[in-house]
């Protein structure tokens, strides 16, 4: 059956590279897009790997030169899933070449690079989005709608925790993530995800007071330069107070992003490890019946119904990326879209930078 | 990138039709199949719908004649997601035409039809599998492995509950599912799923004692002919005892399949509504530390790692169908595969028939 | 401060003996009773133990002769916490002596004895209550009220599971509980508790179809005569269907009594292992907000407020016995009381007997 | 049965007054104390209430003069459950009169008063303990033991949240707790409880960075002077990092004290709303079996077995106070005891004062 198409290029074949490929493969059948994405060109520094992945994932061509992807005339959208230090150069080049860009988080490794990316996006007139897929969860979208509708009254206090344990082993060898050139640690590696959620759910930050910590001072006798733990007190522009904490060394936590939103009439809680449900408390006339209800995601929570007509059956992590691809296609078509664009991304980077500075100067930093 | 392909035909465009289409679209990129499925031909009784879905889902052709799909020389595998009464005729015809068949559960509406399907499969030499996707869950596969390894000792007692609430409203109009010609009710509509799990986890049944119940005797003044609730006492060939209950009118349950497996050294529990985790209890030397542990699915649980390298990030319901498609491709290639074939399916149908008879005759029925 | 008193006698110093003593000690201060219980006389077959416990628990006298307790003129209520085979003789004697009786469950070891106890109670004009403390839980009382008020509509299906693991070890020595003279096993040892709950929550039983099972056929080479597992299909007089299962060999379960009550408008769930909360689902106009709510017990749930003014702070198992003591005092005073009297107790024993017969005869038994 | 006794005086008849009375009533029977507490004298400013409560709770005498209690020669221990501003005067007077003191938390409303109390205790040679009952929970005691034994390796990060909702209603009238003279708000009203736990579980604090917040700036048009929310970044003397947050306006939370303890080999979590269980994660050789285990409190967790021989049956909030009374009697007898003495209490008050100062000066404060 003929249908309009849109050409996809992808740079990178790791966790996120495959995730983008799966999303581009699935989005048309899931959402019935007006234009069917066609996987045109895949780049990886290892050309053999590029070829193998291209064959598996359905790309028409493979290369070890990311510029070949960007300049391939069949490519209209470039997915960037290369290591963080390359994001800025690749994104700016792709935008300059007239491509739409879907770049994985975090935006860049310096504020200057992030600003350059935003400038490039502005000049290009193209869609430039960042890969913050957690905001695409139907449960999160429902939470956001409930907050906006006043279901829990005025939001006055927020907590968010992001925990995994891949840096938990004190006996693991010294690695790239222990080096200062990899970034701050949990702060930029992790906390950007909760910040993307807070941006949607609680609005802009006004001030932060942060602290970082090292559970293990050294590995293999070599001082660890990054911090597995980042914590911050928050003040939002709305006046709400908050807490953020991220820990890459939290044994037993595998994908925890635990949100608590407190309002004048109720409370909402969520944990990404149980991503298909959220907890809602609202005051009841009959106190015998009051309690946090566990709401299971279903077709009532957009866009769950595009995947499944049956509630409580559950989406997966990769499905969030399919939704993100759909939103990017909507943005390209000029329809309303739920994306983290480069301006939103810069705000997240600015918050990270403010937290790093707060830690260094041991004081509150206004944003 | 060129790669061997295998042609897919699909009959049906409902919940399961889309689910098959998504699975065929995703399986090669997810698992790196040796042959890439190509979506060749889609049938629906409504040709307009067939065409729209074909365009969205990526099928090359559409028809309102299911025989056209089966006899399309480009089609090598036929996915059957048409209403249950058509399964037998379609599956037999497809097998006779030399196609592999992936037919949605339940197998058929009569034991005779189910037997005819098994016979047709035997004659064809083709792969004939049923759509029991819950057994494909990495968590379920891990539970099965743990049981076989003796992690909980000898299994001696099993309970399974399957509950949803789509028939819960007493004021809903009289519908097809209330008519006897739709089947028994929860028994064949629902209980086949738990039976597919018990077959893997607890082995064959030896005897059943069943009872069915109607929460609402009538709708719109018309007697309800089916039973929303089915319950059974079970005895397994191993000597283990068990309970099975299914309820289509269980308010608040959306996709619950709650398993409890009791052994001589431990216990395992699982609930499909939280499909990415299971509970494991084993005895500990130190009773202060004993407890059910919540294990989050991850790459240690095959084949989770084909979707995601990060544990605790979660698969969705549709991913189970992708795994099922992968297993069918493995079976076609002659590799070991985890499928419910027509012989397994017939055993499930036999258990259902025995339960229906037990209910009618109010006595234990041996299998 | 002077206050009217009421004299307490107790027979037995085990788990339940101490539990009664603690309850009699606490009830006046907790509830502000019109008459303060005074611990007059304690009996145990081991007189040394009787004396030690009397000193610790605050009894004025100790004896190894239970008849001395019953005939002590200072004793007005006799708590019977002796082994089950003695219940009937002691209760009948105490009632004949004009004492009120609070006898631990189960009532007796034969139906004839239970009937004799009921007759003795009728002749005496005294209060005769059984120790079924789980019905006293404020959460259970709230559930009962909600069901009666129609919060979940018409109750049409019930499930109850009672599981502990004290008989779980296959290598434990052959013990009294493995002998037929100890009773049926889980059926009378355990299932009486769920039956006491079902009697309050779902009304009388009409028919049962039961099965018992032995996880371990022998211990120390000697055949096990009792059944650690009892299961039953239920039909209530109301027409509701149900399931009951009890397992004394359920590894990891320590005090689980899991209830599920399904109605035409909602569902309630409860687990004694988290005795201070219950789950309530009711249909909502907005499906985005629908879910099981976890209600924490608090002063809104009678009689929680007599223990604590703060919700969510929690009662314990022993507090349920204090409530039971309070209800017995209320009954003695002629006030409305929530007790399981000997007539209620006989109905429980009749259900157990019917299940045992159903198991033996492999057929449904009407009650 | 004769037994040595010890005389109890109590000042106050509110929530905590009754809780002390229940504990003194229950402790001997629960623990088999060498000396049986006898309730001698009860004071309340309302003499009628004092008399009614004395009659109910079993006190021999009642008064509206707290000094009469303290100087009653039959009184050996004074329980102080009067409003916070009276703690210092009463405790100092009781100690000066040679009585042992059990004073409810918080210690006092000023650091000077708290110091005076500690000095008075030192001069008296009597036992002076504070009512921090949460540390008495068998689950908390087990967590502490596990941490000390190294079950989770070296503790490197801690989080604690304490939330209730009694100040959640924005439309509630302006009340005493909204006035500055009542204290800081959540900081001293609430956070002292988590601080008592952290003192046992994580050791002394080295520095704090705190912030307080007001969800509702005014009530009835009058500015609210206290803060319902207190948050703090923590650094412990051990080098561990941490977070503390307390919220009296957290809708739906009724008695939440959520602890998370992260170590180099595992993690422990606990929530007071489910006080009879805790979560323990330790690394396993087989990653397929790794997960947080839910440990139910039982006789393996001291001193649970003094209440109940059966695990998983559950203690209640009031039972924690019974344990506290037992520990105070142990201390009086010169046995090892688990109490928060006035020196420990002063450390808690110092932490609160440091947090208040940190909030005021917007900087880290060393302790």
Mean pLDDT of chain A: 97
Multimeric organization: homotetramer
Number of discrete domains of chain A: 2
Instruction: Identify the strand order in the major beta sheet of chain A.
Output: 16-15-14-13-7-12-11-8-18
Helix content of chain A: 25-40%
CATH architecture of the largest domain in chain A: 2-Layer Sandwich
- Could you say which overall geometry of chain A the principal axes of the C-alpha atoms support? globular
* H and E order of chain A: EHEHEHEHEHEHEHHEEEEEEEEEHEHE
Q: Largest beta sheet of chain A, briefly?
A: 9 strands, mixed
In total, how many beta strands of chain A?
Answer: 18
Radius of gyration of chain A: 21 Å
Helical region count of chain A? 10
Under the CATH scheme, which class of the largest domain in chain A? Answer: Alpha Beta
Going by CATH, the homologous superfamily of the largest domain in chain A would be Dihydrodipicolinate Reductase, domain 2
Strand proportion of chain A, as a percent range, falls in 25-35%
GO molecular function (chains A, B, C, D): nucleotide binding; oxidoreductase activity
Keywords (chains A, B, C, D): Oxidoreductase
Protein name (chains A, B, C, D): Putative dehydrogenase
Domain GFO/IDH/MocA-like oxidoreductase (chains A, B, C, D): 141-268
């Amino acid at each position: 059956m003929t249908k309009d198409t849109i050409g996809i290029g992808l740079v990178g074949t790791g966790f996120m590279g495959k995730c983008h490929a799966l999303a581009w493969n699935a989005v048309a059948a899931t959402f019935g897009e007006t234009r069917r994405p066609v996987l045109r060109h895949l780049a990886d520094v290892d050309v053999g790997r590029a070829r193998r992945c291209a064959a598996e994932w359905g790309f028409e061509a493979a290369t070890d030169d990311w510029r070949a992807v960007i300049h391939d005339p069949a490519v209209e959208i470039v997915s960037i899933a290369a290591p963080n230090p390359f994001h800025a150069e690749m994104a700016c080049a792709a935008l300059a070449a007239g491509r739409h860009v879907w770049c994985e988080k975090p935006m860049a490794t310096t504020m200057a690079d992030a600003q350059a990316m935003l400038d490039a996006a502005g000049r290009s007139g193209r869609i430039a989005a960042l890969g913050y897929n957690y905001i695409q969860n139907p449960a999160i979208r429902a939470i956001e709608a409930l907050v906006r509708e006043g279901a829990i009254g005025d939001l006055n206090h927020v907590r968010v925790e992001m925990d995994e344990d891949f840096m938990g082993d004190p006996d693991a060898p010294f690695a790239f993530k222990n080096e200062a050139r990899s970034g701050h640690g949990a702060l930029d590696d992790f906390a950007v995800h909760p910040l993307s959620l807070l941006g949607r759910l609680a609005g802009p930050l006004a001030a932060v007071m942060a602290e970082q910590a090292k559970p293990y001072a050294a590995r293999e006798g070599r001082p660890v330069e990054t911090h597995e733990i980042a914590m911050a007190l928050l003040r939002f522009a709305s006046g709400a107070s908050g807490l953020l904490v991220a820990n890459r060394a939290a044994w037993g936590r595998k994908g925890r992003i635990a949100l608590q939103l407190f309002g004048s009439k109720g409370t909402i809680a969520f944990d990404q490890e149980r991503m298909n449900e959220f907890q809602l408390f609202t005051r009841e006339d009959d106190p015998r019946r009051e309690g946090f209800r566990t709401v299971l995601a279903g077709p009532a929570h957009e866009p769950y119904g595009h995947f499944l007509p049956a509630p409580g059956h559950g989406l997966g992590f990769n499905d969030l990326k399919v939704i993100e691809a759909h939103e990017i296609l909507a943005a390209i078509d000029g329809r309303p879209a739920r994306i983290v664009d480069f301006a939103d991304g810069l705000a997240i980077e600015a918050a990270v930078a403010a937290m790093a500075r707060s830690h260094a100067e041991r004081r509150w930093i206004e944003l």
